[in-house]
Design goal:
Helix content of chain A: 55-70%
Structural class of chain B: alpha+beta
CATH topology of one domain in chain A: Rossmann fold
Strand order of the largest sheet of chain A: 2-3-4-1-5-6-7
CATH architecture of chain B: Roll
Oligomer: heterodimer
Structural class of chain A: alpha/beta
Mean pLDDT of chain B: 77
Distance between the termini of chain A: 77 Å
Strand content of chain A: 5-15%
CATH class of one domain in chain A: Alpha Beta
Low-confidence stretches of chain A: 1-15
Radius of gyration of chain A: 28 Å
Number of domains of chain B: 1
Distance between the termini of chain B: 53 Å
Number of helices of chain B: 2
Low-confidence stretches of chain B: 1-17
Shape of chain A: elongated
Number of strands of chain B: 5
C-alpha cells in the first residue's frame, strides 16, 4: 500500500507521505551516529524476522508532523546477496523481507571522505528505482582535511537529491526533513554503472566523482602519527598490553566503589520498604525473596556499564582495529585470525553479541570455532561471581603501587585462565574437526575519531536495559521460585527449618556429584539455578542465606566464608571460568549454527572441562594450603 | 597427541615474484594488476577499493612485519602476507585511473 503502489500520474501531487524509509550505508560511514541523531534515540531494537541480523527502527517527524519509521539496515559495502547481511539489506529494500513493509524511500549514508569506494553502494540502491536521498556524511572531516565536492553537480549525476551533512555537528540534517516532506520522484541518473563488474563500478564512481569536482581529503595527520605509535614494532604490543590491563583495573578501581555505593542504596531502600510491610510471609517474600535475590545481582550494574563504556570507547576511537592488527599474529598461531579478535574481545562483555558479531568472519569453519571458544572469554556475568568470591577470600593489597592490587590481579588471572582455555580449545578444534586453510584477514582501518558521547550513551542504555530486564524477569523469577522452595513444605503454618525445605532436598540430591569439588548443597543449588544465567548464583546464595537464620544477619561475603573452604572457593572460580552456565548463549549458538549439534557439543565440553578443572583445583589448592 | 601443538606459522617458500604486493617495501607504491584470490575474497577487497588499475601504497607494517596496512584511494586496509602475495602489482607507469 501507500506510495509504493502508486503509479497513476494524476495523483502524483497528493502523494501519500512516506511511512517507512530504509537507511543504508557502508561500515564506517557514520550511519549509526546519524541515525541516532535523526531519531533522537526514539528507537526500538529487534531482529529481522527469520534471520539473526539485528536492526533498529527509529521514528522521526517530517515537516508536516507525520511520523515516519526509519529502518536502519546493516552496514554493507554492496548489495551482493551472497553475504547474509547484504541479503537482508536487499530483501528489505525490495520488500521481500517477510513481516517488514516495503520501504517507500531510501536514505543512503556515505562517507564523504571516501566517496569513490562508497558511491558504489549508492549506485546499487539508486538502481532499485525508489525515491532516494544521498547523504554525504562527515562534511566536517572533509573540509578540515581540504577535501571538496560539488553537491549539486553530484545530484545531477545521480538524479537524486544529495546533501553534505555531519552527524557529529548536525550540519545539513534539515535535508532529511525536506526529503521526507517533498514528493521526490524516482531517481533519474545520467548514467549507471554496468552491473556485474566491480571494476566498472569503480570507474563509474571515479568518473561521477570527477564530474562533481570531488577532491579527496588528505589522511588526517593524527591518524598516521598515532598509527606509527600504535602499530610500532615495540610500542604497539606494549600499548596493547597497557590498554588491556587498564580496562580491567578501571573496572575494579572505579567500578567497585560505585557498586558499593549502589549496594548501600539498595540495602537502605530494602530496609525502608520492609518497615512499611506487616511482618510475616509477605514481608519475607518481598524482602528475602525478591529484594535480596534481585538486588544482589543489580549491584553489578555499574561495573557492567563501565565495561561496555570502555569497550565502546576503544571501538569508536578506532583503536580496536589496530588492536586486531597487533593481535593477528598471536591469533594466527592458534589458527584463527585477527578478525576473531573483535568478537572475542566483545565476548568479555557478553558472549551473546560476540557470537552475533562472528558474522563478519567469512570462513564458516573459523566462524564456528570462534563461536565455540567465545564463552570461555570472561563475560560480564562472571564478574559478579568473581568479585564476590575474591572479595570474600582475598584481602586487598598493593602489588604494583597504585596500578595493580591483589584483587585485580586475581581477576586478571581468571581472565587469562579463560583466555588460555579458549586458545587451547581453538587449537584443538582447528587441528581436528574444523581444519581449514587460514581465513583471510582483511580489516579496514578507520581514521581515529573522538568517541561520541551520544552514541556511547545510547549503547549503554541499551545494555543497561537488557541487564535490568534480565534482573527483573529471569533472575526475579528464579529468586521467587527459590524463596518458595525454601519456605515449603509448611510445618504447622510455619516455614520449615532450612534443612527440611524442598530446596535443601534438591541440593542434597545433587550433593554427591559436587562434593568432590568441595561444594555443599547450597552451592549446588546455586550451580543449578545459575544454568539460567551465571550471576543468578549470587541471587540464589543471597536468598538462601537470607532465609537461613544462621546467616540471616551476616552479609553474603561472611556467609560465603562459612560456606566454602579457600580451596573450594578456588574450585568455584575455576568452575565458573569454564562452565557454559548461560541459557542465552546456548540459544544464540543454536540460532547462529542452525541446529542443536554445536550448542550441545559446546555445553557438554565446557561442563566436563569445568568439572575436571574445578576438581583438580580443589585438590591441588587444598594440598598447598594444607 | 591428537593435534599438532607446534606454534609458529607455516612459512611456505613463496616463489619470488617481484610483482606481488607482498614484495613491496614499506613506503613503496605500485599499480594493482590482478587479484589471484577466491571470488569472495577478491570481491570483498574490491569493495574496499582494491580495484585493478588503482595505486596501492604500503603504509606501514604491524609488529613482526605481518599483517601490513595498505592504502588505496584513501582507504586503509590491513591484510596478511598470505593474501598480499597473491595480489599482482605493476611497478611502473602512471595509474590507469584514480589517485
Amino acid at each position: 500500500m501507500g506510495a509504493s503502489t502508486m503509479s497513476c500520474h494524476a495523483v502524483e501531487k497528493v502523494r501519500t507521505a512516506y511511512r517507512t524509509v530504509a537507511v543504508i550505508g557502508p561500515p564506517n560511514s557514520g550511519k549509526t551516529t546519524l541515525f541516532n541523531r535523526l531519531t533522537k534515540l526514539r528507537q526500538k531494537v529487534g531482529n529481522f524476522p527469520g534471520v539473526t541480523v539485528e536492526h533498529h527502527t527509529g521514528y522521526i517527524r517530517d515537516a508536516n508532523g507525520q511520523e515516519v519509521a526509519l529502518v536502519d539496515l546493516p552496514g554493507v559495502y554492496s548489495l551482493n546477496p551472497k553475504s547474509e547481511d547484504e541479503k537482508v539489506a536487499v530483501d528489505v529494500l525490495t520488500g521481500n523481507m517477510p513481516g517488514m513493509p516495503m520501504p517507500d524511500a531510501a536514505i543512503v549514508v556515505l562517507n564523504s571522505t571516501n566517496l569513490h569506494t562508497h558511491l558504489v553502494l549508492a549506485a546499487r540502491v539508486i538502481a532499485l528505482g525508489m525515491p532516494t536521498l544521498v547523504l554525504l556524511n562527515m562534511s566536517d572531516e572533509l573540509r578540515k582535511q581540504d577535501g571538496d565536492v560539488d553537491v549539486l553537480a553530484l545530484a545531477r549525476q545521480l538524479g537524486t537529491p544529495v546533501a553534505l551533512v555531519s552527524a557529529t555537528t548536525g550540519e545539513g540534517l534539515e535535508a532529511v526533513q525536506n526529503f521526507l516532506s517533498s514528493s521526490a520522484a524516482a531517481p533519474e541518473p545520467l548514467e549507471l554503472p554496468v552491473i556485474g563488474s566491480t571494476r566498472g563500478y569503480r570507474e563509474w564512481a571515479v568518473r561521477v566523482g570527477a564530474h562533481a569536482g570531488y577532491r579527496r581529503p588528505a589522511t588526517p595527520v593524527w591518524t598516521s602519527r598515532l598509527d606509527s605509535l600504535f602499530l610500532h614494532r615495540v610500542w604497539g604490543p606494549v600499548i596493547f598490553a597497557v590498554v588491556v590491563i587498564g580496562v580491567f583495573q578501571t573496572i575494579f578501581a572505579v567500578g567497585q566503589p560505585l557498586s558499593n555505593l549502589f549496594q548501600k542504596f539498595l540495602d537502605t531502600t530494602g530496609a525502608a520498604i520492609g518497615h512499611h510491610l506487616p511482618a510475616g510471609m509477605l514481608q519475607s517474600l518481598i524482602i528475602n525473596g525478591v529484594w535480596k535475590g534481585s538486588g544482589s545481582v543489580l549491584v553489578f550494574l555499574p561495573q557492567i556499564l563501565l565495561l561496555f563504556l570502555v569497550i565502546g570507547i576503544l571501538e569508536d576511537s578506532g583503536y580496536l582495529s589496530r588492536a586486531a592488527v597487533i593481535a593477528d599474529r598471536t591469533m594466527s598461531r592458534v589458527g584463527l585470525n585477527g578478525k576473531s579478535f573483535i568478537p572475542l574481545l566483545s565476548a568479555y562483555a557478553c558472549a551473546v553479541p560476540a557470537i552475533m558479531a562472528t558474522r563478519t568472519i567469512e570462513s564458516k569453519r573459523d566462524r564456528i570455532a570462534t563461536i565455540l571458544i567465545a564463552p570461555f572469554m570472561t563475560c560480564s556475568a562472571r564478574l559478579p561471581v568473581y568479585t564476590m568470591v575474591i572479595a570474600a577470600f582475598l584481602p586487598e593489597r598493593r602489588l604494583l603501587g597504585p596500578f595493580l592490587g591483589t584483587r585485580a590481579a586475581a581477576m586478571l588471572g581468571l581472565y587469562v585462565l579463560g583466555f588460555l582455555m579458549a586458545v587451547f580449545t581453538a587449537r584443538l578444534l582447528k587441528s581436528t574437526v574444523l581444519k581449514s586453510k587460514d581465513a583471510p584477514f582483511i580489516l579496514e582501518m578507520p581514521p581515529y575519531r573522538w568517541p561520541m558521547p551520544v552514541s556511547l550513551g545510547m549503547r549503554l542504555v541499551d545494555r543497561g536495559k537488557a541487564f535490568l530486564y534480565r534482573a527483573g524477569t529471569v533472575i526475579m523469577l528464579v529468586s521467587l521460585l527459590l524463596w518458595a522452595a525454601t519456605n515449603f513444605p509448611m510445618h504447622h503454618g510455619q516455614p520449615p527449618e532450612i534443612q527440611n525445605s524442598v530446596v535443601a532436598k534438591l541440593g542434597q540430591a545433587i550433593e554427591p556429584v559436587i562434593r568432590p569439588l568441595g561444594f555443599d548443597w547450597k552451592i549446588g543449588v546455586g550451580l543449578l539455578t545459575s544454568l539460567a544465567a551465571r550471576e543468578v548464583i549470587i541471587a540464589t546464595l543471597g536468598t538462601l542465606n537470607g532465609v537461613d537464620p544462621a546467616s540471616h544477619a551476616a552479609d553474603l561475603q561472611t556467609a560465603l566464608r562459612h560456606e566454602l573452604t579457600p580451596a573450594a572457593a578456588v574450585a568455584l572460580l575455576v568452575f565458573f571460568a569454564f562452565a557454559m552456565q548461560c541459557m542465552s548463549t546456548v540459544a544464540v549458538v543454536r540460532r547462529e549454527t542452525n541446529g542443536w549439534k554445536w550448542p550441545a557439543i559446546q555445553f557438554g565440553y565446557m561442563t566436563i572441562v569445568a568439572y575436571v578443572a574445578a576438581f583438580a583445583a580443589y585438590h591441588i589448592v587444598g594440598r598447598i594450603l594444607g | 597427541m591428537i593435534f599438532n601443538f607446534k606454534f609458529g606459522r607455516r612459512r611456505k617458500a613463496a616463489p619470488e615474484k617481484s610483482s606481488a604486493l607482498a614484495d613491496l617495501k614499506v613506503g613503496e607504491s605500485a599499480i594493482l594488476a590482478d587479484l589471484k584470490l577466491s571470488p569472495a575474497v577478491a570481491e570483498h577487497l574490491m569493495n574496499l577499493g582494491f580495484v585493478p588499475g588503482l595505486v596501492v601504497k604500503v603504509l606501514r607494517s604491524g609488529p613482526g612485519g605481518d599483517p601490513r596496512v595498505y592504502r588505496v584511494d584513501g582507504t586503509e586496509v590491513a591484510m596478511r602476507r598470505d593474501l598480499s602475495q597473491h595480489i599482482d602489482v605493476e611497478l611502473i607507469g602512471a595509474p590507469a585511473f584514480g589517485d
